[in-house]
Amino acid sequence: MGTENKLTTSWGAPVGDNQNSVTAGSRGPTLIQDVHLLEKLAHFNRERVPERVVHAKGAGAHGYLEVTADVTQYTKAKFLSEVGKRTPLFIRFSTVAGESGSADTVRDPRGFAVKFYTEDGNYDLVGNNTPVFFIRDAIKFPDFIHTQKRHPQTHLKNPNAVWDFWSLSPESLHQVTILMSDRGIPATYRHMNGYGSHTFKWVNAEGKGVWIKYHFKTEQGIQNLSADVAAQLAGENADYHTEDLFNAIAQGDYPSWRLYVQIMPLEDANTYRFDPFDVTKVWSQKDYPLIEVGRMVLDRNPENYFAEVEQATFSPGTLVPGIDVSPDKMLQGRLFAYHDAHRYRVGANHQALPINRAQNEVSNYQRDGQMRFDDNGGGSVYYEPNSFGGPKESPSDKPAAFEVSGNADSVAYDHHDHFTQAGDLYRLLSEDERTRLVQTIVGAMRPVERDDIKLRQIGHFYKADPEYGTRIAEGLGLPVPGDK
C-alpha cells in the first residue's frame, strides 16, 4: 500500500473529521474548541486579497523572450545581450475598468504587463494594447479612473462622468478615437498588439543613451470583435478571452509576438514636433522606424490562478541595468503608484512570492513585515554601511546621469496640440471603419444628459477633423461647431 495521504490543518496536524464540526451533542451548539472549524472559516474569510483598483479582470501565462537581433549598441541589459538568448517571462493580460467578475469582451483598453526574469533581477514592462493613453500627467489618474467606475449613489456606470471628463481633458482625444474604433474590442488576447506606451531610455555599456518605445506585434494577426458579437459573448461567456488563452496554450497553439523598438537620439527630444515624453502622442514610424529585438512566445499555463495570476505584481519601476525611465509625467507617477498598490494589496513582501521572486539571488537589508515566509535574513548583518561583509552598492550599475533644468512649478507640457494625431488616425481609417467609429461614439454619448458636455466633446472631434466632428454632431442631432 502507498503512503496514506492525510488531510492536515495549516500547522500540519492530521484532521480526524472534516465532515462534522464539534458540537455539544448531536444538535449542538457548536463548541469554540473546534480549532479546525475556526481555522477553516477564518481562512475562508481571508481568501480574497483586495482586487486591483484597475486591471482587476485578467489572465496570465508563462513563456520566454528570444533575442533575434543584436541591440547591444543601444543597451547593456544582459537579457538582450546576444542573439538566441532566451529569458523566461510571465505575462498578464487584463481589462482596465471592470471588476474581477466583469466580462472580457467590453470596450476597454487591455493591459499588457510582462515580467522578465533576467540574471540581473526582474524587469517589468507594464503597458497596454494601445500606444497612447487618455491623460499625460499622473495627478489626473485618480480622477480619470473614478469616471470609469460606478456612480457613488446609483452604483451604475456613468456616461455623464466619462464624457464630462474627456471633454474637459482634450488630451484624451487620441486614445478615445482608438478605443471607439474597431480595435476597441480585441477578438482575443492573442490577436492584439502590446505597447510599452511610455518613452523609456536604453543605455549601452559605454554609458550612451537613447530614448525608446516598445512595440509587441502579434504574429496571430490583428482581429477584433464587432460590438454586437462582443455584447453577445459578454452574456454567454464572460470569460471568453481568459478561456481562449488557456485553451490555446493547453492545445499547443502557442501565441507569439515580435518585439520591436523605436529609437530616438537623446538630442532629438528637444526638437521633435511633438513632446516625445507625452504619452498621449506617438512617434511617427517614418521618423523612427521599428527595429526588431526579439520574439515572445507563451507556452505554459499557470498551475494555480491565485498564486500566479492574482498575486503577480508588476511595476514600471522594476528595472534592470541598461534600461531607465524618461521624464514622462505619467510614467514618473506610476513609478510610485504601482509598487505602493502592491504593498497594500498583496503585502510588503510581495516581491518574495514565487511568481514575483527574482531568479538571481536577492541581497538587501529589507526585513520583517507581514507574511515574511523565508528566513528573513537569518542572523546576517541588517544595516549598511557595515564592516561585516554585507552586500554593497556597485557604482558601475548606477543609472546614467541626465541634465535637468527649469523652475519647480506645476506646469503642463509645452506642446498643446491634442488634435493632429487623432485627426491623422481618423483619416487613415476606411469609410466603413469611420462609419463604425462614429456609430460607436454616438451610441456611447447619447445617454449623456447635458448637451453642453456633448457639444464640448464634438468640438474636439471637429478640431481633429471637420468631417469627424460633423458626423458625430449629426448623429446626436446637435449643431455642428461653427453653425449658426
What is the H-and-E element order?
HEEEEHHHEEEHHEEHEHHHHH
Query: What is the tally of helical segments?
Result: 12
Number of strands: 10
Query: Which ranges are low-confidence, i.e. pLDDT below 50, for 5 or more consecutive residues?
Result: none
What is the global morphology?
globular
> Could you report the average pLDDT, rounded to the nearest whole number?
94
The assembly state of the depicted protein chains is single chain
CATH superfamily of the domain at 58-131 and 186-351: Catalase core domain
Q: Which architecture name of the domain at 58-131 and 186-351 does CATH use?
A: Beta Barrel
What is Rg?
A: 25 Å
**By helix and strand content, what is the structural category?**
alpha+beta
Overall CATH class of the domain at 58-131 and 186-351: Mainly Beta
Biggest β-sheet strands, sense, barrel: 10 strands, antiparallel
Give the distance, in angstroms, between the N- and C-terminal Cα atoms.
91 Å
Helix content: 25-40%
Proportion of strand residues? 15-25%
Q: What is the CATH T-level topology of the domain at 58-131 and 186-351?
A: Catalase HpII,  Chain A, domain 1
